[in-house]
Structures are given as structure tokens and as C-alpha cells.
Fold:
Amino acid sequence: MPEAPLLRTEALTRAFGSLIAVDRVDVAVRRGELRSIIGPNGAGKTTFFRLISGETTPTSGRVWFGGREITGLPQHAVARLGITKSYQITNVFPHLTVHENVRVAVQGWARSFNFWSRADALTDVAERAHALLRTVGLAAKSAQLAAHLAHGEKRHLEIALAIASEPELLLLDEPTAGMSPEETDETMRLIRELTAGRTVILVEHKMKVVMKISDRITVLHQGQVLAEGTPEEIRANERVQQTYLGAIR
Ligand SMILES: Nc1ncnc2c1ncn2[C@@H]1O[C@H](COP(=O)(O)OP(=O)(O)OP(=O)(O)O)[C@@H](O)[C@H]1O
Ligand SMILES: [Mg+2]
Structure:
């Protein structure tokens, strides 16, 4: 029997007045998968994320995570179960150094699980923070104030902060927004490296990136799932080409 999906939504729906932003969406993401969600502006991608993370409650429909129903759970409860949204932790503290920012995130995670109660806990936290910074290429900037990082470096710091909490499911909403093609390539390499073996849902507008990085792609259009499949299947899908690929930004 195939393994049950890590995340599953059933007829997930969110209306804002007469506008149905997310319309009966069924999605199943298996453990370890990198799923991208694409669709034109206003397709419902961010709202879908908010419904999963508990930031917004659904009008109807259900959400399961790790076999347990999480529909309507408040955000902090969902976060505790291991769903992390990258820009939610965009609590980059500008007046702390890069290293201090990551240390705070690692420490918060460790404490919430009572993970390190040993005497050398602080060394472990500092070492883990350093390891994360090396992975995201910010080791040389450790002592700099976060406020002084360049835009692309800040986004890398955010990714390090998101990973610091060891999420079961990581939601990334347009991690390469505002980046140059070179920065985008570097960020994608990072995401691939840091999320190996993790489950990730990525919202991204840059098709080149999406086609390269995704295991599967879900296409949203006016709140509904227009198509789902591998990058090859999505590229070849006629409805997707007609509805979406022409409208790419
Ligand atoms: N809090 C809200 N109140 C009213 N309408 C909303 C609210 N949040 C989203 N919407 C509407 O729901 C629709 C879907 O919005 P959403 O932000 O989910 O789209 P998106 O796919 O993330 O778009 P983009 O690619 O521009 O980020 C849009 O028409 C938007 O105006
Ligand atoms: Mg959005």
C-alpha cells in the first residue's frame, strides 16, 4: 500500500464575500516531495498557504497533516505540528547579527521540544547556527547586523531561519521575488540542498525555476486546480498552455 500523504486537502474552500479565492481544492503531497504551486496573480496560491498554516480559516473543506485533521487549528498549533511558512519567520531581527538571528531560531526550536537540556546546550546551538550559515553561504557575514545584508542575502537568512525549526513541511511563498537571475539560480540551488529529504510546497512565478526544481506541480486558476502533474506533464498540458503559460509574468 502506498504511504499516506503528509499533507492532504479535501474540497478546501475560502470565500471572501462573493469572491471564491480557493475553490474546492484537493491536493495530496507525499513526504519528501517538492511540490510547486503555480498560477496567475490572484489564483489563490497565497490564500491556499494561509489555509494550511492556520492563518486563515476555511469556509469549507478539510486539511489533514500527518494523518491528523488540522482544519481550523490556530496558527501556533499548526506551527507546533511542524508546518513552517518562510515569510512567517521573516522575523529577521535587523539589530541582531546574522549569527544571533539564527541562534535565536535554533534555540527557540530546541527549547520548544526540550531538546537540549544538557550543560553544553549553548555550544550545540551556536554550532548548529554556524553550520546553517555555512550552508546558506553567509558564514563570512556572521558578525554583521542583519539590517546590513543585501536583499538576496536577507532571503537566504530567512531560509536558514525557516530550516532552523526543523519543519516537517516547509511552505515557501515566492522565495526568489525581486532577485536577479543569478541570485535566483543560487537561491534555488540552496533550496534544493537545504530541503533534500524534506517536504516543501513552493509558490513561484518563475517557470524556468519551477520546471527545474519540482517533483510535481499543481496549477491553480481562479481558485481551482486546473492541472497537476510532473513538470513534463504540465509543460505538455494544453489547458495549462492556453490558460496560464501565455499570462506568465
Ligand atoms: N483578506 C482578503 N480579503 C479579500 N480578498 C482577498 C483576501 N486575500 C486574498 N483575497 C483575494 O483572493 C484572491 C486570491 O488571492 P491570493 O493572494 O491568494 O492570490 P495569489 O495566487 O497568491 O496571487 P499573487 O500571485 O499575486 O501572489 C484575489 O482575488 C485576492 O484579491
Ligand atoms: Mg500570492
Notes: Residues 16, 19, 21, 39, 41-47 surround adenosine-5'-triphosphate (ligand 1) (CB under 6 Å). The chain has two domains: 1-89+167-249, 92-164. The beta strands are 7-16, 19-29, 34-38, 60-65, 68-69, 83-85, 169-173, 199-203, 216-221, 224-229. The longest strand covers residues 19-29.
